[in-house]
Amino acid sequence: MGWVLSISVVEGLNAEVIAGRLEAELVEETIGDSRSGEAAAAGLGPPVVGLHSDGRAVILDEPYDDAPVLEDTRLLAQLSRATRVVLFQLSERVNCGFFQVGCWVDGVMAWQITHCREEPETEEYQVLGVPPGIFADKAAPYRAQQAQADAAGEMTCYLGAAVVDLFVSLTGIQYDRPGWWWDLRYRVLRPSIERQADVT
Predict the structure, then answer these.
(1) Could you give phi then psi for residue 108, rounded to 5 degrees?
(2) Which residues fall within 8 angstroms of residue 48, CB to CB, at 6 or more apart?
(3) C-beta neighbour count of 190 within 10 angstroms
(4) What is the reported pTM?
(5) How far apart are CA 61 and CA 54, in angstroms?
(6) Which of these, 10, 29, 136, 173, could form a disulfide with 57 (CB 3.0-4.6 Å)?
(7) Angle, CA 157 vertex, CA 3 and CA 177 arms, to 5°
(8) What backbone torsions phi and psi does residue 198 show, to the nearest 5 degrees?
(9) Distance in angstroms (rounded) separating the CA atoms of residues 200 and 198
(10) What are phi and psi of 5, to 5 degrees?
(11) Residues 71, 77, 79, CA angle at the centre, nearest 5°?
(12) Mind listing the pLDDT tens digit for each residue in 64-105?
């Protein structure tokens, strides 16, 4: 098990509507990375929703070794009703890492690209649906780099970078830029009491 990062960009919805669709409650407000206790020290905490500089909502979830909230397809369908949601997930649970970017529109998954060299079906790219045409251009140089590395017997993995580049191109969010979330005001999303009762 290991670190997991999940980022979702939601068009046209505010924090209150997002919380309702995710069956969550907005329980506290934080500025950037000011989450408290051990979670803050580790950079972890419950999912939060904030605003990107262009007004779109951003959901940030760092569940460490648990599944991100938005792996639940029922919640994704609810969240994307009459709007578009672009999702990105990065996990270091396996040697090469797990990279995924996808898009849900009006309650249905439009497309998804997954890369994980540890699984046969995702060893290069697993593509579901019809992804944006720019993905082929993003992936081409990384495929060439990977072919050279494989021919030389290197263990380096380059293919996940194309997944990251596509997410950045579609959303303008560079998740690995130092402090990209620090200047955003976030509302913490916690499961509602009814949802907690359903889970237990």
Answers:
(1) -135, 140
(2) 30, 35, 59, 60, 61, 186, 187, 188, 189
(3) 15
(4) 0.85
(5) 20
(6) 10
(7) 55
(8) -65, -35
(9) 6
(10) -125, 130
(11) 90
(12) 768 888 999 999 999 999 999 999 999 876 556 899 999 999
